[in-house]
Amino acid sequence: MFKTDKIITKTILKTGVRSSMLKKRILGVTMVAILALSSGQAMAAKEDATRGSVDLTNADVTPFAVSPITMETTENVGGGTWDYGTKSEWQGWLVWKKRVWSNYNHPTKAHASTASIGTQTNFSGYTLSGTTSYASALGDLSAQTHAYWQTYE
């Protein structure tokens, strides 16, 4: 092999490696852009929502813990803040119940929250902007359990 053949071979190999690295960088940047755009759309959809709910039926609430179990979540939805969850409550001699709550606050829109467990439902009522709506209900540990929020125009 002549010296010029070695130089040409090295140049082709280096260019191929650089080309491969460039392709990987472009692919990486493209993937990051796609993820950013898709999560931005999901976040925008969450912020544009006017109502929401969550099923808390199988939330981990048990009477066999040393202290009551609480499962609580806070989310920014619909332009406001939603706090919801469940907890076990001792009601007396060997009687445990589960409480569900839904509290929502929106700074610029009227809103409401609802909590339901089994046949018990509690609606906060129409609440003015900037004020937190509160709803909670008490029922059996195994009852169907839901929390809701909504805004009004």
Q: What order do the helices and strands come in, and which of them pair?
A:
Layout: H1 3-48, E1 51-55, E2 70-77, E3 80-92, E4 95-105, E5 110-117, E6 120-123, E7 133-139, E8 145-152
Antiparallel strand pairs: 1-8, 2-3, 3-4, 4-7, 5-6, 5-8
A few lines on this structure:
This protein is α+β, with helices and mostly antiparallel strands. The chain has one helix at residues 3-48; strands at 51-55, 70-77, 80-92, 95-105, 110-117, 120-123, 133-139, 145-152.
Structure, described:
- The chain has 153 residues and is α+β, with helices and mostly antiparallel strands.
- It has one helix at residues 3-48, and strands at residues 51-55, 70-77, 80-92, 95-105, 110-117, 120-123, 133-139, 145-152.
- The chain has 1 helix and 8 strands.
- It has a 4-stranded antiparallel β-sheet, with no helix packed on it. The chain has a 4-stranded antiparallel β-sheet with strand order 2-3-4-7.
- β2 (70-77) and β3 (80-92) form a beta hairpin.
- It starts with a helix and ends with a strand.
- 23% of the residues are buried.
Determine the mean pLDDT. 77
Spell out the helices and strands N to C.
HEEEEEEEE
- Computed over alpha carbons, the radius of gyration is 27 Å
Structural class: alpha+beta
Q: Got a strand count?
A: 8
Characterize the biggest β-sheet.
Answer: 4 strands, antiparallel
The coarse overall form would be elongated
Strand content: 35-45%
Give the helix level as a range of percent.
25-40%
Query: What is the first-to-last residue Cα distance?
Result: 80 Å
Q: Taking strands numbered 1, 2, ... along the chain, how are they ordered across the largest sheet? A: 1-8-5-6
Q: Report the total helices.
A: 1
Return residue spans where pLDDT drops below 50 for at least 5 consecutive residues.
27-44, 62-66
